Amino acid sequence: MRKLFRILKIHRLKIVEQVIVVTLFSLIIPLIVTGIIVNNINRQALARELGTTTKTIAQTVDENIYNMFEADDAKIKEIAMAIKILPDKNTVNKFLKEILKTTNTFSNLEIVNIDNNNIPSYISDNPHINPETGEVTVAESIGTNRYVIGTMRKDYLNRQVFKNIKGTSREIFVLSNNLKLLFSLNYNEEDLEMLKKAIPKNVIAGESIYIGDKENQPMVYRKMKWSNTIILVNTTTEIIKKTIYTSAWKIFTAMLVSTIVSILLVVLYTYYLYINIRQLFKGIIALTKGNYSRKIRLLKNIFTPYELVFLAAEFNKAADEINLSYSKLAKQNQELERLDNFRSNLIDTVSHEFRTPLTSIKGYTSRLLRHDITIDEATLSKSLKIIKQQSERLSRMVEDLLVIPDIEGAKINMNIEPVNIAETIELSLLSVKNIENREVINNAANKNIWARADKDRFEQILINLIENANKYGVEDTPLIIDAIDIKGKATIIMKNKAEYIDKNTIKKLFEKFVRLDDKTTRTTRGTGLGLFIVKGLLKAMRGNIYIKSTKEGDFIVYIVLPSEEQ
Asked: For the range 310-319, what are the long-range contacts, defined as Cβ-Cβ under 8 Å and sequence gap of 24 or more?
């Protein structure tokens, strides 16, 4: 008896064995039942979906045609507006030819004279579709009895009509009200004739309706609201075969693949779980040893337990917070160092550059206030002139310091307007002091080049650069100024002779408080903010500055701004 019990005793299954048994009973039977149900539901759903998609395609073609004509009408209006401001007929013809060369929209553009008492249909019905040829024209008035007429390209029309539906294998036909074919996709003459015979009578425009009597093969008729145009969409037999008749096989294949994949995932589950637990152990050990940069990287999949994912995420979050604290501390140290350097440079600039004008102002003011000496008119005028010059110098240095926060914070207010470059260069040359000792060749004087810029700021930029060229240029050498227009960019070029400066030093010149001569051997006056401010102002005007220095002694500055046409 005991031996019999031992034989009949139920064997306690291991985890792997339990997983296999549960997988077999929880997957195979449900998949078979589900497959039968899904196959029937899928067959009905596909038939409905084919019909819905066919209607959607018809509506999309309708919208594409409408949007295309809206866009074409806007284009011809733009062309008409441009023609109205052109000076003469030759310019207009040249303008139209240039558009035809560069556009992929129009095959022909012409200007015609029309009697307003007898306006043809291709003018009044705008845009106009020729019901016989399918040719599409758009027109726009450009004056009394004058119209510009554009004929659309056939390839352009086909692209726009069937935009976003090129991948479909459905047959799409666009017909005129007299059933002439205008556009087609996947053309089939036999099917077209069949669809024409099935066209119903008394259909409301703007609605898509099913036609024909073929089951599970929807054919749609749609009459456009805004045009006497008909859209026919046919679902071919090939589409039916590719959808409904092959769906059963696809469902069976999907069931088989799902079963295999599920079994494979179950087999891999234990392996992934083991690897992830080992990752947790390694991360915890690294943390106990003080390695806070170590992160836990799990092999994640749909079977990874939530607890492991949560634990790893919290561990990594703690490590990130610690590393972030260290990073913030490092950045704060760098910012403090930058501020300390800024403070040192500012103090050095103020103490060195402000001392000279202040000393001059104080000295000459004290001299003028003395009562024990007599000051003649010449001396008085000279003293007041020096005080005024030094005050203006102080004012410029203060303005340079005050504009730095606006440049760094991108808060500069600009009054952008068309600026004549030649006039601005002339005004800038008049404003620069001590320029009389240097020959200036202004090749831009007679050029009619305009830029979009803030006039006052632009003049400030030019004055700054001309003063630099005057101060740092080799004596008895000319300063050459020119202006050109390159690809819609107004470019001012300043060229003079100066000592060679390497590329790394040129880059540093655009930083704050950087000068060619160091603070112990300064030979020229200035705060070292000039080029920093110039670059900041140009950037605010959507411009830029480039500097080139050659070993032959040429020093060239390029100022680039948007042209007036932009």
From this structure: 311/280, 312/276, 312/279, 312/280, 312/283, 315/280, 315/283, 315/284, 315/287, 319/287, 319/292, 319/293, 319/294, 319/295
